[in-house]
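Morning run. Coffee first, then this:
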Amino acid sequence: MADLDDLETAGPALYTGRGDSGRTTFGRHGDVAKTDVRVAAYEDCDEANAAVSVVMAVGNLPIGITSTLASVQNDLFDLVADLAVPLDDPVAATARISESHLTRLERAVDHFEREATDLSGRVLPGGTVAASLLYQARAVVRRAERTVWVAVEAHPSTVSPLCARYLNRLSTLMFVLARGANAEHGDVQWAPEASALAMAQEDGDDSPGAAATDGASERP
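And here it is:
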């Protein structure tokens, strides 16, 4: 492995150092703190897109699902482009989330819900690799939704609530796809109080009375 001091540079540097003060130029919002909730919303949505990309890369999913997720990735780029330009900005945004984006997601949910054998009951995240990754992506999407709602509440005139509504629908799609990915092998069912029961049984096995009983059973 080459030493960092020996590496040659090619072309202009990608780093500028302008953000080293904790501030950044965020789209048409101008100069803001990196801790600004609008920046946090943008970055959480970027993380959600990355989580979807992992599902597509290693989930080994059918082409119908991967094509749907590819469309979702494009939508999430539309969404962050929307967040980067205030609603009241005179310059038109590159893209805006619209009701049609939500309608497409709702149709996808309706379609893939038919492929999930049973959506009743409560399940733990897990099962197949694909389902586990989809559950993880769902959790990231839900966090992104919460952050966008905070941004909407803080800047109601400049941040579109449609972005948060889209993420709400997307988390539902991730859930339905995860359940469908476990359709063949079954979901990991939640068993209320199962951990407490198992611990109680272990404590009982370790009790003096249990040890004496075990010892007695081993005598000739």
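The helical segments are 37-58, 63-83, 99-113, 129-154, 161-181, 194-205, 208-217. Good start to the day.
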